[in-house]
């Protein structure tokens, strides 16, 4: 870690009070706004017509961006987004692509209004470009935002913006992923807002400075043009809308859209019990050579119609696994948008008024310059989102109806690998650089009423996609030996987590080794935890087969389907590495599925048999994890009952008691749901907590009787495919809490031995807040 | 003396149009008869014969050909009502159809559903995994054999499928369009095991790069192929028994027909046939009216279909989405952009007025139908506004309840918003027109055009009441509403006017400039396939047209755009010309400078479209001319109608379409009642009846608030 940089705090953008921002603008800058009376005076007809038109403007911007971009990350994987914001930068309408970006866009506009209004000025015909994650706009330097002020009658009326992930913007590592980075100076240089378009003209000098830094300058130049084009579409259509309905009406609709989203989220929050919920997660390794675990922790408190996310206690920034404040806020949005606002229009400016962030400077998800933040979105911001999602799920799980939006954690990271080398298949050999996109097909977490979506994608990029194998092989000199779903990779549970997948590639059409950069985590500890006793999904695993037999196998008419066929010397790849992949070698990636929901021993045996038939699980897991005995496709009911009873007994034998069960049964007809496993029952004037499955009264809310077990991580099931000791020094365990009466699992996790105990009923609504 | 008959088998009704090429056009309508749709076809043909005063065999004996479009295959796919099929694919890659490139989770969903990620699922897989089997074999991108086909393993896989009761097998291997040898061998192995099993090869059904769409296309084609074969065999046998001697043709998604016996082999090419009939009809009518650029809107009770005609040719697409799968099928571009007359108006949790995408469907239908629907729809609003007659539809044969319509709007919309029922109905009407305008604009703009250069055609029961409104929203100045005999069977009219169209394609990705000989050879192979295909149709053509095309893209950009290629021998200049055409088209679609020439251009898929022009071009007959432009003689009465929330109700003349004559001019506001629809001529526009009985609505004054 290098020394702090004095003066860098100027670039740290934070949410602002819009009125204060308005007052701070230079008097030379005329800003268009409307009064609350004008907003209130809107009739429903005009509101709906203009609202829909604004949606259609945003949609057209996204189409333009997608079609003009040259980056497969945009065109094939949909890692981009776009927005329309009001005159002060508050987001009115956002795209449905990378939802983390929503938490960063407005920060950059606030910063620009504060720091560019006087010099060089903000004028009609300008567009700014930034990839400074401290300023905002994106979460790491690869996220580049181009945004413009839209003027009407000389007044600043609104902002449009377009962001996408660029494949490479320089720095030490391929794809700007620098696995050994000590600080941001080894990565792509963050660029604070610069005027890339002035008076409607792309500025050649600025564009050259920008493009020159990249290993793929042509792609970056093309994407720059695409983003300018998307903004042009946005400006022209906004002007047409203003012409038809008048500036005041359009602005009033924009304000009301945000107010409407805010009100609806506040109403939903009000309807939920107050309380506070915590979650803690880890990134294993922080950079090449590190063997540590790096913790992010959050306590989510809901009071009335407001949420507070308090990250106090999060580890200090370290290696390359940091993100800025924008990343933390983006992580919060990745969870909040789908979980709390799936049925509310994403007028993010309004939604973001409903929460505060509490955080310490210099930590993993609020890193201080010059921390390395290139992995921001796929490491710490993502983990932040998953932890917030875990808290929100606990909050919603109290209510059966709202519980429909509860979900165990999805695939917890993007398993990142970048390859680059020489394609010799054409007469004229050509260089190539590619981020392997397949790991975008992670599994989704299980829900209280349904299994997780198999290879459903990444929760933070709802409309992501992966390329066809044929397109990958057409563009790059590789052969995919397999690309397939991985049985057992979905977290076991009453509802099973969605499975993840795996790809094996070998060079084909190149005679020299290709560079290989690895930058991800989630091998040693689970990042895809289960809920309500459901188990975590699989750990990730990347493997290099150096002394491989693959060429001989193919030549002799055999297509290998297991690593053991390919090589006797397999090398688990470290999370962060600068390596290579030579002809005749094989590289295999396995990425994460989603976590399970509820005790797997309570899963419907017919669902287990179906999973076995559809190869979502193995026969071994059906018996050892789910306790289901399947004979030639059919459930053996008696044997299953016996096996499940045996496993419950095994839990009893291996666990230690934390407090004794009361020996009393509650009347389950008159209880209040706490979560999927626990209920609150009235006892005299007070309340007690009981097991929802066997009705055993477990305690009074201060003290709840539980049984706990800690054992090897592989006790979680066959999905634990990586050995934690290969990556980190700290011991990693499978920890399970059960009902000490019926032995139903309440909590099952693969965590470091020192992981804090979950609250499990010790936190009734009465006690919380 | 010979007839051409178009038959359109929809989910609810079977429509037919007959043209005698001598000025007579007849239309008939009869209920569809699932599961055996052929009965409904015979019923409707019987009705036509009756109108001719002939027996069915007499009519069929004089019929040159029947062009038939059916929704049954599409319905079968959407409802999952298909027999089990087997799937053989390359070892290591079976899960392509289960991973679905992730996009299978969200493809084809509305914006509303897209945002609700936690409500999504991927539970529409094509087949169970036990029917998807891998065989050891591998080609690379240049068509080289990397691993030879393991025939013993393949035989075992085929046996396992047959033992499990599978009677149709889809074969799709990686890179098979570059080298189909292993797919061909697998077909032989299936035939060795059982020659009666239906087999479809991806290298024949869809020889196009990107294995997920190719796999899905081949599997779906296999799922509907045997059913389509059985249905068409039954139908054709029955028609032959009734003395049909001319060919029975089946409409395809590409807007052209194919002989019935040829259809099942590439069954997937027929799935969009009923959707495209309206566009083909618009082309035919446009030819008569001299319109080259048309937005075709077909609005029914539950769907709103929008198609485009540019420069006299329908806008085409190379893929479509069925059941959340990308499907490779050359098709006319038809966007389903809304829910038609049954779209439900509702208030969201924020108290905002929303319309659709949920529809009241056929059952219960709009509240005013009195079938138990309590949610207000567009139709209910139109009744309250006086646009629809209080006495009901179909000249009163379908009664409507104004009371129920008012009640639904009052409870669900007016009261919560503090509006009167009339104000709420007017708001629904206006919002519906504006949003339809947004969606129509999306369709036109995404195809690379400016809507202001188009004429808009409106047909279907629910289109004409709104068309002038949504046309104004997108800046279209002229609207055509067909009122004549085919108005309610416009899609069948399109079928009757179609020609035979076949296409053959082949992906051969390569970088421009490439050896012209390579292109020439590709086109030679494809042209031979198309010519042979046309020969097999058993129809005499006036002429045959062959069109060569290449789907090209900028090396670093995803979007492929189709460029025409000249016929005859190809030289470097011809390839360059195609590349230039590609660039122009790309710029038109995505904007000037959107393309990135420096990165190079790639040719991806070569295609030949063959059109066999039939010796028939059905035309709408002329109607008698009016003595004067004053339409008073056609006036049936008047009623208060509200077309503009600000202006309120105005006493509005109502016309009976049967009494309208060519040259009549209807000053808006006016209403035209047709048994199957109601046309609104808003204030500030004039409706003119043309010589074919179409109502042409044009703006006469500055745009009023619609």
Automatic annotation (TrEMBL), chain A:
<dbReference type="Pfam" id="PF02538">
    <property type="entry name" value="Hydantoinase_B"/>
</dbReference>
<feature type="domain" description="Hydantoinase B/oxoprolinase">
    <location>
        <begin position="43"/>
        <end position="600"/>
    </location>
</feature>
<dbReference type="InterPro" id="IPR045079">
    <property type="entry name" value="Oxoprolinase-like"/>
</dbReference>
<protein>
    <submittedName>
        <fullName>Hydantoinase B/oxoprolinase family protein</fullName>
    </submittedName>
</protein>
<feature type="region of interest" description="Disordered">
    <location>
        <begin position="638"/>
        <end position="659"/>
    </location>
</feature>
<feature type="compositionally biased region" description="Basic and acidic residues">
    <location>
        <begin position="642"/>
        <end position="655"/>
    </location>
</feature>
<dbReference type="InterPro" id="IPR003692">
    <property type="entry name" value="Hydantoinase_B"/>
</dbReference>
Automatic annotation (TrEMBL), chain B:
<dbReference type="InterPro" id="IPR002821">
    <property type="entry name" value="Hydantoinase_A"/>
</dbReference>
<protein>
    <submittedName>
        <fullName>Hydantoinase/oxoprolinase family protein</fullName>
    </submittedName>
</protein>
<dbReference type="Pfam" id="PF05378">
    <property type="entry name" value="Hydant_A_N"/>
</dbReference>
<feature type="domain" description="Hydantoinase A/oxoprolinase">
    <location>
        <begin position="214"/>
        <end position="501"/>
    </location>
</feature>
<dbReference type="Pfam" id="PF01968">
    <property type="entry name" value="Hydantoinase_A"/>
</dbReference>
<dbReference type="InterPro" id="IPR045079">
    <property type="entry name" value="Oxoprolinase-like"/>
</dbReference>
<dbReference type="InterPro" id="IPR043129">
    <property type="entry name" value="ATPase_NBD"/>
</dbReference>
<dbReference type="Pfam" id="PF19278">
    <property type="entry name" value="Hydant_A_C"/>
</dbReference>
<dbReference type="InterPro" id="IPR049517">
    <property type="entry name" value="ACX-like_C"/>
</dbReference>
<feature type="domain" description="Hydantoinase/oxoprolinase N-terminal">
    <location>
        <begin position="5"/>
        <end position="192"/>
    </location>
</feature>
<feature type="domain" description="Acetophenone carboxylase-like C-terminal">
    <location>
        <begin position="521"/>
        <end position="691"/>
    </location>
</feature>
<dbReference type="InterPro" id="IPR008040">
    <property type="entry name" value="Hydant_A_N"/>
</dbReference>
């Amino acid at each position: 870690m290098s020394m702090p940089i004095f003066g860098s705090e100027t670039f740290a953008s934070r949410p602002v009070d819009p009125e204060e921002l308005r007052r701070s603008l230079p008097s030379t800058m005329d800003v268009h706004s409307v009064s609350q009376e004008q907003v209130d005076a809107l009739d429903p007809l005009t509101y709906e017509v203009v609202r829909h038109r604004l949606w259609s403007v945003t949609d057209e911007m996204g189409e333009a961006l997608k079609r003009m971009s040259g980056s497969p990350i945009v065109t094939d994987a949909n890692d981009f987004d776009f927005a329309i914001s009001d005159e002060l930068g508050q987001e009115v309408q956002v795209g449905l692509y990378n939802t983390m970006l929503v938490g960063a866009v407005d920060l950059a506009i606030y910063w620009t209004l504060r720091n560019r209004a006087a010099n060089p000025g903000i004028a009609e015909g300008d567009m700014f470009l930034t990839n400074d994650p401290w300023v905002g706009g994106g979460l790491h330097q690869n996220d580049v935002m181009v945004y413009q002020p839209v003027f009407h009658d000389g007044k600043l009326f609104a902002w449009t913006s377009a962001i996408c992930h660029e494949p490479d913007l320089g720095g030490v590592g391929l794809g700007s992923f620098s696995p050994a980075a000590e600080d941001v100076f080894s990565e792509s240089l963050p660029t604070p807002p610069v005027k890339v378009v002035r008076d409607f003209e792309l500025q050649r000098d600025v564009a050259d400075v920008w493009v020159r830094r990249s290993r793929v300058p042509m792609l970056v130049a093309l994407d720059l043009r695409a983003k300018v084009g998307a903004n042009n579409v946005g400006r022209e259509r906004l002007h047409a809308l203003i012409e038809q309905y008048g500036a005041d009406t359009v602005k009033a609709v924009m304000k009301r859209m945000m107010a409407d989203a805010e009100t609806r989220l506040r109403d939903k929050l009000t309807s939920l019990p107050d309380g506070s919920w915590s979650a803690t997660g880890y990134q294993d390794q922080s950079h090449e050579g590190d063997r540590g675990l790096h913790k992010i922790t959050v306590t989510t408190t809901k009071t009335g119609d407001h949420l507070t996310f308090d990250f106090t206690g999060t580890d200090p920034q370290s290696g390359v696994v940091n993100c800025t404040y924008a990343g933390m806020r983006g992580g919060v949005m990745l969870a909040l948008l789908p979980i709390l606002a799936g049925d509310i229009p994403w007028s993010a400016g309004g939604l973001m008024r409903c929460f505060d962030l509490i955080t310490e400077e210099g930590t993993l998800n609020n890193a201080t310059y010059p921390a390395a933040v290139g992995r921001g979105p796929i490491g710490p911001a993502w983990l932040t989102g998953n932890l917030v999602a875990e808290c929100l799920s606990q909050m919603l799980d109290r209510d059966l109806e709202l519980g429909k939006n509860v979900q165990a954690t999805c695939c917890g990271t993007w398993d990142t690998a970048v390859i680059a080398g020489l394609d010799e298949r054409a007469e004229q050999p050509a260089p190539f650089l590619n981020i392997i996109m397949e790991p975008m097909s992670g599994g989704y977490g299980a829900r209280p009423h349904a299994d997780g979506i198999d290879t459903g994608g990444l929760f933070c990029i709802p409309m992501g996609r992966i390329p066809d194998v044929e397109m990958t092989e057409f563009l790059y000199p590789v052969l995919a030996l397999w690309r397939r779903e991985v049985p057992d990779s979905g977290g076991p549970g009453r509802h099973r987590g969605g499975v993840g997948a795996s790809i094996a590639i070998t060079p084909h059409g190149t005679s020299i080794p290709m560079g290989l950069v690895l930058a991800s985590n989630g091998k040693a500890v689970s990042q895809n935890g289960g809920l309500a006793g459901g188990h975590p999904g699989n750990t990730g695993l990347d493997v290099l087969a150096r002394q491989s037999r693959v060429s001989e196998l193919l030549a002799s008419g055999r297509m290998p389907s297991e690593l053991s066929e390919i090589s006797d010397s397999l090398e688990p790849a470290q999370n962060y590495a600068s390596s290579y992949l030579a002809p005749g070698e094989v590289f295999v990636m396995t990425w994460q599925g989603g976590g399970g929901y509820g005790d797997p021993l309570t899963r419907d045996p017919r669902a287990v048999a179906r999973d076995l038939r559809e190869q979502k699980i193995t026969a071994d897991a059906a018996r050892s994890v789910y306790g289901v005995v399947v004979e030639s496709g059919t459930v053996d009911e008696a044997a299953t009952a016996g096996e499940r009873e045996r496993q419950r007994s095994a839990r009893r034998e291996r666990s230690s008691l934390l407090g004794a069960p009361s020996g009393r049964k509650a009347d389950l007809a008159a209880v209040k749901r706490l979560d999927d496993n626990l209920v609150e029952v009235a006892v005299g004037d007070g309340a007690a907590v009981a097991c929802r499955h066997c009705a055993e009264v477990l305690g009074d809310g201060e003290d709840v009787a539980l049984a706990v077990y800690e054992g090897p991580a592989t006790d979680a099931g066959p999905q634990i495919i990586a050995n934690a000791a290969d990556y980190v020094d700290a011991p990693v365990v499978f920890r399970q809490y059960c009902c000490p009466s019926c032995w139903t699992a309440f909590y099952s996790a693969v965590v470091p031995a020192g992981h804090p105990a979950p609250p499990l009923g010790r936190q009734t609504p009465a006690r919380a807040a | 003396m010979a007839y051409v008959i178009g038959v359109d088998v929809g989910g609810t009704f079977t429509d037919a149009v007959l043209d005698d090429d001598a000025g007579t056009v007849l239309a008939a309508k009869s209920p569809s008869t699932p599961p055996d749709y052929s009965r409904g076809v015979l019923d409707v043909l019987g009705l036509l014969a009756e109108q001719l005063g002939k027996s069915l065999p007499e009519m069929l004996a004089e019929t040159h050909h029947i062009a038939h479009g059916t929704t049954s295959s599409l319905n079968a796919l959407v409802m999952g009502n298909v027999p089990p099929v087997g799937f053989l694919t390359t070892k290591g890659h079976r899960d392509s159809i289960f991973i679905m490139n992730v996009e299978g989770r969200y493809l084809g969903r509305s914006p509303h559903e897209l945002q609700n990620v936690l409500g999504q699922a991927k539970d529409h897989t094509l087949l169970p995994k036990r029917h998807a089997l891998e065989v050891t074999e591998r080609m690379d991108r240049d068509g080289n054999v990397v691993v030879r086909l393991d025939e013993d393993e393949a035989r075992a896989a085929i046996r396992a499928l047959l033992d499990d009761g599978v009677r149709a097998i889809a074969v799709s291997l990686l890179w098979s369009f570059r080298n189909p040898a292993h797919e061909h061998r697998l077909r032989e192995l299936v035939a060795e095991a059982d020659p009666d099993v239906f087999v479809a090869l991806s290298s024949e059904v869809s020889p196009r790069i990107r294995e997920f769409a190719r796999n899905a296309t081949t599997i779906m084609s296999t799922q509907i192929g045997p059913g389509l074969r059985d249905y068409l065999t039954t139908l054709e046998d029955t028609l032959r028994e009734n003395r049909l001697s001319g060919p029975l043709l089946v409409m395809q998604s590409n807007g052209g027909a194919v002989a019935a016996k040829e259809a099942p082999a590439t069954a997937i090419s027929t799935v969009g046939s009923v959707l495209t009939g309206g566009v083909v009809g618009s082309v035919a009518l446009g030819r008569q009216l001299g319109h080259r650029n048309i937005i075709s809107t077909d609005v029914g009770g539950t769907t709103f279909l929008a198609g485009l005609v540019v420069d006299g040719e329908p806008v085409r697409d190379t893929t479509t989405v069925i059941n959340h799968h990308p499907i490779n099928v050359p098709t006319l571009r038809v966007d389903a952009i809304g829910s038609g007359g049954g779209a439900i108006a509702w208030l969201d949790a924020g108290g905002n007025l929303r319309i659709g995408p949920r529809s009241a469907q056929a059952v219960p239908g709009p509240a005013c139908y009195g079938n138990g629907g309590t949610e207000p729809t567009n139709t209910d609003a139109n009744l309250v506004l006086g646009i629809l007659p209080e006495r009901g539809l179909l000249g009163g044969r379908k009664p409507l309840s104004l009371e129920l319509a008012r009640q639904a709007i009052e409870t669900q919309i007016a009261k919560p918003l503090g509006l009167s029922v009339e104000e709420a109905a007017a708001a629904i009407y206006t919002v519906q027109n504006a949003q339809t305008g947004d969606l129509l604009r999306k369709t036109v703009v995404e195809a690379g055009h400016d809507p202001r250069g188009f004429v808009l055609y409106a047909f279907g029961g629910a289109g004409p009441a709104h068309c002038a409104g949504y046309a104004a929203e997108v800046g279209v100045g002229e609207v055509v509403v067909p009122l004549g005999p085919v108005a309610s069977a416009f899609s069948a009219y399109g079928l009757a006017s179609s020609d035979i169209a076949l296409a053959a394609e082949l992906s051969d990705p390569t970088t421009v400039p490439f050896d012209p000989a390579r292109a020439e050879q590709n086109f030679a192979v494809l042209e031979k396939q198309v010519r042979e295909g046309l020969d097999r149709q058993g129809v005499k053509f006036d002429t045959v047209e062959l069109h060569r095309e290449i789907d090209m893209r900028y090396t670093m950009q995803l979007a492929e755009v189709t460029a025409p290629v000249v016929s005859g021998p190809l030289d470097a200049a011809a390839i360059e010309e195609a590349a230039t055409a590609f660039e122009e088209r790309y710029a038109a679609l995505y904007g000037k400078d959107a393309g990135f020439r420096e990165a190079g251009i790639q040719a991806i898929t070569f295609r030949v479209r063959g059109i066999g022009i039939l010796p028939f071009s059905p035309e709408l007959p002329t109607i008698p001319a009016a003595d004067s432009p004053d339409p008073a003689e056609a006036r049936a009465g008047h009623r208060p109608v509200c077309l503009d929330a600000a202006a309120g109700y105005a006493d509005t003349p109502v016309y009976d379409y049967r009494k309208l004559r060519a040259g009549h001019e209807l000053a808006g506001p006016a209403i035209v009642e047709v048994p199957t629809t109601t046309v609104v001529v808003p204030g500030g526009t004039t409706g003119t009846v043309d010589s074919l009985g179409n109502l042409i609505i044009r703006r006469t004054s500055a745009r009023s608030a619609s």
